[in-house]
Amino acid sequence: MTTTGLHALESLLRQRIVVLDGAMGTMIQQYKLAEQDYRGKRFVDWKGKDLKGSLELLNLTRPQVIEEIHAAYLDAGADIIETNTFSGTTIGLHDFLFQGEPNRGRKDQEFFQRVVGDVDLRALVHEINFEAARIARHAADRVANETGHRRFVGGSMGPLPVAGSISPDVNDPAFRAVSFDQLRETYFDQAAALLEGGVDLLIVETIFDTLNGKAALFAITDSLEKTGRSVPLMISCTVIDKSGRNLSGQTVEAMLVSLAHAQPLILGLNCSLGPDEMEAFVEELARVSPYYTSAYPNAGLPDALSPTGFPETPETFAPKVANWAANGWLNVVGGCCGTTPDHIRILENAVRNCKPRDLLDSDVSAAPRSAHAAHAGAVG
Asked: From CA 186, how far away is CA 72, in angstroms rounded?
């Protein structure tokens, strides 16, 4: 099969199953960092809320920790590492870094307009995402030079603590804390900085509210136009329970239909469920999707007694996920919450000889493969 003219990632997808990294937060927890680690010299005099737990801030205050984690996943066999930017938006970080308070007793659109428009917060978010991309880029390029095999950096664009289509107040179902434009603006700042930092693709992941996902896709188009870059797009949705629906009520197939306008290179599922609970939904997506399919589940359902907070060990996790690859369902595989480099190392070895999933529609390979396509129907 010819791969002339294809993006390097798609060329690799046609050859074999591509391996994504595992959890960032799980690994950071193992460092047992204290408040002073999150503050560093930069924020030693910070007067706001405690910063411990603001994982993205470590890109500025403890960048060596983040690079060590990237390196561990690369050494484990990951082809793609994700930037440490899962919550790296103005809205995603506002609980830590925005010192304003709601004027009307609850966080509403007036409050979040101040968040997304805060000049200092926007500048800090840009720096966090730019540095995160730079750190990951350095790690990926170093390992690529050492091994002779290209490694890719995915710009992680995760969910927000608010939803565009769901009220946070059960007593006021018509209330919406944020507008679509505010969602788009917060994602625009993140995407632009990640692109400027040199990511190879953008990953809109853990989509629990499809409207939020659409806002991210709309923002990506704007940011690509601003930066003049063209990169592939990966979309990863999440189902919240065994019903197979996301928080806004859509099934896997409905999510696919709602987001297909973006013409992603890869579309899949991640987070929320472990491999046992997610299996039926991965199979369903592989049956209906015309795109390269990804899956990176949690290491089981949360378990406070497990060392990582999740029960699946590398030895139990990898065979279950590798079975999906053996069934011909996957093109990209990795791990989410509770997974470590050991999970990825065993998983990479288990899928090494599995054939990648064939696309259902042979014409899809000729469709737009960059995130530029995300503008079509982005708010439809």
From this structure: 31
Instruction: Report pLDDT digits (tens) over 182-197.
Output: 999 999 999 999 999 9
Please list the residues that pair with 237 across neighbouring strands: 207, 269
Helix axis angle, 109-117 to 119-147, nearest 10°: 60
Q: Tell me how far apart the alpha carbons of residues 147 and 144 are, in angstroms, rounded to a whole number.
A: 5
Strand partners, 268: 236, 294
Looking at the chain, list the stretches that DSSP marks H as alpha helix, in order from N- to C-terminal side. 8-15, 25-29, 35-39, 58-61, 63-75, 90-97, 109-117, 119-147, 180-197, 210-227, 252-259, 275-288, 314-326, 341-351
Phi, psi at residue 180, to the nearest 5°? -60, -40
Q: What is the DSSP letter of 290?
A: S
Predicted TM-score (pTM) above 0.90: yes
- What tens digit of pLDDT does each residue of 15-30 get? 999 999 999 999 999 9
Tokens representing 333 are: 């595989």
Taking the alpha carbons of 279, 86, 203, 17 in that order, is the dihedral positive or negative? Answer: negative
Q: Read off φ and ψ for residue 202, nearest 5 degrees.
A: -110, 135
